[in-house]
């Protein structure tokens, strides 16, 4: 049954990359535009729907979890290296946008930590 989870992941990837390439073609770019992201969204939506309908058994879920634990970090690393390469070739505006986005994300970590934490949360102190 784990093979069904792997097949679902593969199908979502193929559909996502196809949609990404069609989007790239429509925008006049000879590249995939967000195909992996679209694939991940598809995977989340499809697995959620299958779970709610009771058609997604535990072994299939284990197949998706296994491959996603390996697959997602590799794809994110590949996409990040492409983004950095494109930013270097894109000039100052692309580098500035990337730097400001990273600074904004890092500065918002404490804000989100306070929002998500509770008053009884002792996870910050070592025992």
UniProtKB/TrEMBL annotation:
Keyword Cell membrane in the entry? The reply is: no
Q: Where would one find coiled-coil regions in this protein?
A: none
* Alphabetic keyword roster: Membrane, Transmembrane, Transmembrane helix
Q: InterPro entries this protein is in?
A: Maln_transptMadL
Q: Does the keyword Transmembrane helix apply?
A: yes
Q: What superkingdom does the record give?
A: Bacteria
> Which stretches are transmembrane?
34-50, 62-80, 86-109
> What NCBIfam families does the annotation carry?
malonate_madL
From the Swiss-Prot or TrEMBL record, give the protein name: Malonate transporter subunit MadL
Q: Which organism is it from?
A: Luteolibacter soli
